[in-house]
Design a protein that fits this description.
The protein is α+β, with helices and mostly antiparallel strands. The chain is built from eleven helices and twelve strands. It has three domains: 96 residues, Orthogonal Bundle (Hypothetical Oxidoreductase Yiak, Chain: A, domain 1); 184 residues, Malate/L-lactate/L-sulpholactate dehydrogenase, NADPH binding domain (Ribosomal Protein S8, Chain: A, domain 1, 2-Layer Sandwich); 42 residues, Hypothetical oxidoreductase yiak, domain 3 (Wheat Germ Agglutinin (Isolectin 2), domain 1, 2-Layer Sandwich). The protein is globular.
Length: 348
């Protein structure tokens, strides 16, 4: 499979230019572009710039607003509720996490929920914002039906990802970013786009049978992590993001590729101010100790022991230096979009 390598700034500028061409305000376009670039830098390709055509498609179809203002519906002490007003999830998410961090400075903990939103990209982007202020970030979002509840075969719950980010001193931060299914549905869409099979154990077809065909998987259901445990986590995320926000009932969030109406995605953001609990440097040194202790343990095969988020951190450093790899099919799709809107094409 042919790959092309692009400097991160080239991808950032490309995404911003396309978004501005379709009517997104420049400040918002910069936020959206950054979340996509972070996804590609960390090689979470399903949530990188490959998403751009779908976002543009939703604006074209009139089911998502390019610039509707994010509104604060409730702001009371350590908690707040925001209405994304059917605009970009990235813009609402960025503002919500920043507000959660400000509240954490005031109260030790800040919690902000968002309703009437859309797909917001890579979940770790938002939890990692807290690292800039020596805070712990906790973020989750609901999504369209992709997982069948335990011992059923009809998709009802989303992949509903959860992310935690914990700062360290010498070591890279601990960053957990996981869907409550074995894999994110975006990775299956990516496999369908590039013509690859998916590993057995990722998904079931519409009859509830294991499949390696990404197209059959998209018509069926994703496997939950740990069986009933993954189902339980997904359900709790849906309650926090959909029920608590009075936004959507379980199973009613629309798929990102469903242009029949607004997505009505919900998000939940939390920041914990470490300084309210302990001396920040002491805490971060102790996290370093934990990381080093784990990495010093003998591995089962003699290979390296990786911490949560370490591979993605290493990918970021590598891709900042060598360029971000994109598959030929993705580059072609993006350049077709650029041509349609009179934007500059991607050239390696």
């Amino acid at each position: 499979m042919t790959k092309h390598y692009f400097p991160v700034e080239t991808l950032r500028q490309f995404a911003q230019e396309v978004l501005v061409k379709v009517g997104v305000e420049s400040e918002s376009a910069a936020i959206i572009a950054e979340t996509l670039v972070v996804g590609d830098l960390r090689e979470v390709k399903s949530h990188g710039i490959v998403r751009l055509p779908t976002y543009v498609g939703r604006i074209e179809a009139g089911v998502m607003s390019a610039n509707a203002p994010v509104k604060t519906l409730m702001d009371n002490g350590a908690v707040a509720l925001m209405d994304a007003n059917n605009s970009f999830g990235q813009v609402a998410g960025h503002h919500a996490m920043k507000l959660a961090m400000q509240k954490a400075k005031d109260f030790g903990c800040g919690m902000v929920a968002v309703k009437n939103s859309n797909h917001f990209g890579i979940t770790a982007y938002y939890s990692m914002l807290a690292l800039e202020e020596d805070m712990v970030g906790i973020v989750c979002t609901n999504a369209s039906p992709a997982m069948a509840p335990f011992r059923t075969k009809t998709p009802l719950l989303g992949t509903n990802p959860i992310s935690f980010a914990v700062p360290a001193n010498e070591c890279p931060p601990i960053v957990l970013d996981m869907s409550t299914t074995v894999t994110a549905r975006g990775r299956i869409r990516y496999a369908a786009l590039t013509g690859d099979e998916i590993p057995l154990g990722w998904a079931l077809d519409k009859d509830g049978k294991p499949t390696t065909d990404p197209h059959a998987a998209l018509e069926g259901s994703l496997e939950a992590i740990g069986g009933v445990k993954g189902f339980g986590l997904s359900l709790i995320v849906d309650i926090l993001c959909g029920i608590l926000t009075a936004n959507t009932m379980t199973g009613t969030v629309k798929n990102i590729t469903d242009y029949s109406g607004p997505s009505k995605t919900g998000h939940f953001f939390m920041a914990l101010d470490i300084a309210k609990f302990d001396d920040v440097n002491i805490f971060k040194n102790r996290v370093d100790e934990v990381i080093k202790k784990i990495k010093a343990l003998p591995s089962v095969d003699g290979g390296p022991v990786f911490m949560l988020g370490e591979i993605e951190h290493n990918n970021t450093q590598k891709n900042l230096q060598n360029g971000v790899p994109l598959d030929e099919e993705v580059v072609q799709q993006l350049n077709e979009l650029a041509k349609k809107y009179g934007a500059s094409e991607l050239k390696a």
